[in-house]
Write a structure and sequence with these properties.
By secondary structure, this protein is mainly β. It is about 5% helix and about 45% strand. It has one helix and 29 strands. Strands 1, 15, 16, 18, 23, 24, 25 and 29 form an eight-stranded antiparallel beta sheet that branches. The chain has a seven-stranded antiparallel beta sheet with strand order 14-17-26-19-20-21-22, with no helix packed on it. The radius of gyration is 26 Å and the shape is elongated.
Length: about 400
């Protein structure tokens, strides 16, 4: 079981599924992508960028290099002659750490068109996002290739051409992507089932139908986005707590979380929103389904909300918002239909009842009912992170 950074989260010893986009160690790897660059520094050329003397390049590992300039200039470069598309946006990125001196790093980028290098851009240090600070930071720049382009030329250089510098810095994790923004580094391809890992390794999370914002964070677009978690018997429990954080970006609508639309076309449980209300139910059957109903006015747009839904084998379900059980949000649950069989867990939307325009940065499912005091303590542990 992975440890949780920060305040204790109660119930994690009984976690059967979960993800957390802020946990880049155990869960969030990054948006699916392919690194089109050759990320090993030994394959990159070195010159003095028009100056008389090049500095010293020390390769610390295949993806990590140190540059030392003493009245010199060091430029590294790679020519990609084929495999690229014309009039297409690509994003170039590399991690940078200053050792001594003020950062002056720049990119120089060309398109390759019919044997010629053209459409030059030479973004400044600030334009690639670097500032004079300690620690690692990411330099990135998005560039659109020229009409007719089939390749690219990328220089990573210590400032202006024909100019001497005296300072030291390190670079690592070169990346070139067919995207309008940079994503976390991969040496090759990160597939749709490798970008987000469950906090316990009993399911596969598929990000094929998920949108990403300019910060490479997941966003459900409200049209057809949904996250699919492979069917897992551990999710089927008579005692369950479903805990998640959500920010609605538009009028709440659609199936937010749904597990187990089986052979009888019944879900074991769902949380959905439509017609001004949110609904939580367990084995919804019969006329009206017996939903717990919460007015959406309790969940304002563009604010994060911590929601917990519980169900137990004594037949009761409850609904909490920001650590508080909701009035009228406790009732006897339905019983399992005889023809029910488990299916996938879907998050963010489902074809039957629509899709949610929202951000859902964390979901956790436990195989026991969290107590009211545990739910309140979990809310208090995360509320500052989401400014709730």
């Amino acid at each position: 079981m992975p440890t949780h950074a920060g305040p204790n989260i109660f119930g994690e010893e009984t976690l059967v599924f979960g993800y957390d986009l802020a946990d880049t160690v155990n869960s969030y790897v990054g948006e699916p992508t392919t690194n089109l660059a050759v990320p090993t520094w030994s394959n990159w050329g070195v010159d003095a960028s028009g100056y008389s003397t090049a500095g010293t390049r020390t390769i610390l590992s295949p993806y990590h290099v140190r540059i030392d300039d003493i009245s010199s200039n060091t430029r590294q470069s790679f020519a990609f002659y084929s495999g690229f598309n014309a009039s297409t946006t690509y994003t170039f990125s590399v991690k940078f750490k200053k050792i001594a001196g003020t950062p002056t790093l720049r990119f120089q980028i060309y398109s390759y068109v019919s044997g010629n290098w053209t459409n030059q851009t030479f973004p400044t240090t600030s334009q690639i996002g670097l500032t004079n600070k300690e620690g690692w930071q990411t330099a990135s720049y998005s560039y659109t290739t020229a009409a007719g382009a089939t390749g690219l030329y990328w220089y990573i250089q210590d400032g202006d051409d024909y100019t001497a510098y005296t300072h030291s810095f390190e670079l690592k994790e070169i990346q070139l992507e067919a995207k309008s923004h940079a994503t976390p580094f991969t040496a090759g391809t990160r597939s749709a089932t490798q970008g987000l890992l469950p906090l316990i390794g009993n399911s596969t999370i598929d990000l094929t139908n998920i949108s990403f914002d300019s910060n490479a964070q997941t966003v459900f677009d409200g049209t057809d986005d949904s996250m699919v978690v492979s069917n897992n018997s551990a999710l089927k429990n008579n005692n369950t707590s479903i805990e998640f954080v959500i920010k609605y970006l538009d009028t709440p609508n659609g199936d937010i979380i749904q597990f187990g639309v089986g052979s009888g076309a019944y879900a074991q449980y769902y949380y959905r929103a439509y017609s001004g209300n949110s609904y939580w139910n367990w084995y919804p059957v019969g006329t009206g389904y017996g939903d717990i109903t919460i007015p959406n006015a309790a969940l304002p747009l563009n604010q994060y909300h911590h929601i917990v839904m519980t169900g137990n084998d004594q037949g009761y379900v409850q609904f909490y918002i920001n650590g508080v059980v909701q009035t009228g949000a406790t009732r006897t649950r339905n019983t399992q239909p005889s023809n029910w069989t488990p299916a996938d867990l879907t998050i963010g939307g489902f074809s039957w009842d629509g899709y949610s325009s929202s951000i859902i940065p964390s979901v956790k499912i436990y195989n026991r009912v969290l107590t009211a005091s545990e739910i309140l303590r979990n809310f208090n542990a995360i509320k500052s992170r989401f400014n709730i």
